[in-house]
Amino acid sequence: MKAGFVSIFGKPNAGKSTLLNALLGEKLAIVSPKVQTTRHRIKGILTQPGYQVIFSDTPGIIEPKYKLHEKMMHAVKGSLEDADLALLLVAADDRLEESDEIFSSLRLKAPAIVVLNKIDAVSAASLEAAIRFFKEKDYCKEVMAISALHRQHIDELLNKVLEYMPEGEPFFEEDNISDLSTRFFVAELVRERIYTLYEQEIPYETTVLVASFEEKTTLTKIRAEIIVQRESQKAIILGEGGKMIKRLGTEARGAIEEFFGRKVFLELFVKVRPKWRDNENFLKEYGYQ
Ligand code: GDP
Ligand code: MG
Fold first, then answer.
1. What's the whole-model pTM score?
2. Is 25 left (phi over 0), alpha (psi -120 to 50) or beta?
3. Domains and CATH numbers, the chain
4. Residue-by-residue DSSP string for 85-139
5. pLDDT in tens, 89-137
6. pLDDT value at position 62?
7. How far is the CA of 10 from the centre of ligand 2 (A)?
8. Is residue 275 classed as helix, strand or coil in its secondary structure?
9. Three-class SS of residue 195?
10. CA 208/CA 270 separation, integer angstroms
């Protein structure tokens, strides 16, 4: 039996959450075209005959501007500590030097594979150049090329990962796919819809808290609070005559029903909490430890 921990690092938008979902074959991590969608360390547990691999998706590596960002980078550091293997994810169509700088500064203890993602978005020549660029870096054991979105070369990557896993007994029961709570996933699915429905600063200044969660016989009743920083943002979340929040509610409910495979009744409320992103107490209450 093999069992071990694998952490996925990289710049915002490299495709880390998409890769976690592709590896697990389940949608655990929310994904959006906007940066800073992932705010927590999300563990996905893959248990198969002969092995268990615990993958950690992490927030993209950024310079912290708010306490929220500090908590996010804390999640990255936590993932650095216990990894048996690091997957350093790079969007092949992005500036490679920026990723190289970040990877050099990580002070990795574990061996690292550089994974070039989004191979569907670059020419064969620039992919070759990217492979050559990373192959000679000190932190890089080897380079793999994938498309997380199109699930290309995911099996090869998984086989490679297994070569690096230590012998050992599983850490989690085999039917666990994550260490995070149901409430967490519900809040994340609402947050994902906020990233796609609202523009400008709204997604970055908003968080979601599941205030109550009740399993009834025919459906699950959920009350979620959307936290914003200003009254004007509350008005934007609601939209004219409540049009936007209604759409948000409908889309989020659909996603939650798909996740649970059962009917959901979802109530959304908007609360204004000035500067919650810089307030230790609010951050704690909203699950950013
Ligand atoms: P993260 O910030 O690193 O977690 O990145 P996400 O997983 O949220 O993905 C960021 C964006 O890149 C999303 O719009 C994804 O659909 C997109 N993306 C991820 N993998 C691929 C890929 O293989 N090819 C292309 N073209 N886009 C991808
Ligand atoms: Mg992410």
1. 0.91
2. left
3. 2-164 (3.40.50.300), 182-285 (3.30.300.20)
4. EEEEEEETTS-HHHHHHHHHHT--SS-EEEEEE-GGGS-HHHHHHHHHHHHT-TT
5. 999 999 999 999 999 988 888 999 999 999 999 999 999 999 999 999 9
6. 87
7. 9
8. coil
9. helix
10. 9
- Ligand 1, atom 25, residue with closest C-alpha: 118
Kindly give the number of the ligand 1 atom that is closest to the alpha carbon of 89.
Answer: 3
The pLDDT tens digits for 161-206 are 999 999 999 999 988 889 888 999 999 999 999 999 999 999 999 9
Measured from CB, residues less than 6 Å from any atom of ligand 1 are 10, 12-18, 31-33, 37-38, 60, 117-118, 120-121, 147-150
Residue nearest atom 13 in ligand 1 by C-alpha distance: 33
Q: Could you list which residues have their CB under 5 Å from ion ligand 2? A: 16-17, 38
Ligand 1 atom index nearest CA of 11? 3
